[in-house]
Amino acid sequence: MRPGASGRDSLHAPGFGALDPYASLRSAAGIKGAPSDAPLLLRRAERWAERATGLLVGPRLKAGHGLWILRCRAVHTIGMRYPIAVFFLDDCDRVTSAIGRVKPGSWLRDRVAVSVVETLEVQAGGLCSAVLRVESSVRLARRQLSA
């Protein structure tokens, strides 16, 4: 378990180069990047003000929605009113660490991450499938931007 992740469900890999902590999960499930669940609807936070406020402003996230914060290695939930799940991604859009139940008032950081996806709280058993869903959702969002 990572420092600061006590009391939460978490998956973490140190992020050394091409290490992919979820490769065995994908191959065991026969998944090459797209889980069977529908992709998340991601709202992008690119500008400084959007990244700084994150989920603190606006309505509560709905199921199947998430916030994708670009150029981000650390997040906090100070001022939040509900728990969330946080997924840190590397420059290849692979999840490097995932924390399923982040309570309000928490600080999280991943030194190798380049972006973060925040979603509604994920139950303990669903964290692995949520990782695959987040990765495929981010890849889909990137393809839609470049089209």
Please, how many domains? Answer: 1
CATH topology: Jelly Rolls
Overall number of strands: 8
Major β-sheet annotation: 6 strands, mixed
Low-confidence segments, ≥5 residues, pLDDT <50?
Answer: 1-22, 24-36
Alpha-carbon distance between the two ends: 39 Å
CATH architecture: Sandwich
Integer average pLDDT: 78
List the helices and strands and how they pair.
Layout: E1 10-12, H1 23-29, E2 41-45, H2 48-53, E3 65-70, E4 74-76, E5 84-89, E6 95-102, E7 107-109, E8 115-120, H3 127-146
Parallel strand pairs: 2-3
Antiparallel strand pairs: 1-6, 3-8, 4-7, 5-6, 5-8
Essential attributes:
single chain, 147 residues, alpha+beta, Jelly Rolls, 27% strand
Explain how this protein is built.
The chain is an alpha+beta fold. The chain has one domain (10-146): Sandwich (Jelly Rolls), CATH 2.60.120. Helix content is 22%, strand content 27%. The protein is built from three helices and eight strands. It has a six-stranded mixed β-sheet. A two-stranded antiparallel sheet has the order 4-7.
Short description:
The chain has helices at 23-29, 48-53, 127-146; strands at 10-12, 41-45, 65-70, 74-76, 84-89, 95-102, 107-109, 115-120.
